[in-house]
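Assess this one:
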Amino acid sequence: MNENFIITAGFCWDVMLENRFKNSLYLEPFGYKVYSQNDEDGIIHEIFKRIGYTDKRFIEFGVQDGLESNTHCLLYDDWRGLWIEGEERYCNFINQKFHSVIQSGQLKILNSYVTKNNINQLFEKAGFTEEIDLLSIDIDGNDYHVWKALKCLSPRVVVIEYNAKFPPYLEWIMPYNEHYIWRGTDRHGASLKAYEKLGEQLGYVLVGTNISGANAFFVRRDLVEHKFVEPATAEMLYNPVRYKYLKFVSGHPPKTCLRYSGEGMAGDFDISGENFILHNGFYKPEYDANGRFNLQWMRGTKCETFVRSLVDMPKKIKISFINEIEELEITVCVEGEEKQKFIGIKKGEQDIFSVIEHDYTSGDILKVDIEINKLWNHHQVDGTDDTMPLGIAVINIEVLQ
């Protein structure tokens, strides 16, 4: 046998999966990845096609950095919701990378570990009670106990990670431990049979699992109406662990949330000097083989960018731009409050515009809005035939002592 050939848990599960693709009541055929870790995006979409939705509200906890999560994709379909994440570094990342949807009020982020003792208080504090459309649970440990403790909320759909190590006829539940940290072993969560029985107690029906053997999907009993596979048991719907040899790819990897990406926004990059990250709005400077500066220009007349400090000590920064424009307006905001505004005038042939001194501490985010009144192009600037419009480009971010 080829040493690269892998049988996961048992070949019987793969035979069963092949038959499921012939039955449209199973959810596996509808799975696909946009921003989910595996094929959860497609399955969630299919469930709501069958049962409908109300106000498109969600809660997900255990999102890590949020980029690969079960609800990231929903933001593009006008859903709104709450993310809860225990690690502060991930919350700081989300506040930066999802700034536009947080600022719009579409997404809330709460930094807290979720336990069976605080889950109801956390939801109530964030203003999420009674009915919502979707709840996604993935905390690599106490998932079973936290769902069981939920009282203040009635989600129509629940997505929860199950421990696929255990076949569908075995009931196993990890003992509750509020301080538990998953170490990558098979000691986590609960088996699918355990979740099936818990769902019955809480008024939910198991409607499917994804082919990776990662997540189970439950629909509130009053909404099922023979729209899913019956009987709704672990034996009928189980998938083994396949995520070691199944890899879902969806386009290029995400680096930031693209929702509300406006004119002139140009992606993420690290600025030299290692003290700051500049993102959403400027192209990274490039240099030719001789070390000469080769500009990449922001396109369009408006852009929004954010600068985040990576250093612990207070600093002053100066951001230098080069432009081929006659006037430049820059507004600097710290934590949403306008601090400084600058008007730039074209100066001779160099067109260098130096901006912004701001006292910085680690993690501080500076928002910079830029609007220019006129676009130039290469033909106007250097006499070439290229009529590609130019905008503005960053030269440097300088740390001032």
Q: What stands out?
A: Residues 40-51 form the longest helix (12 residues). The radius of gyration is 25 Å.
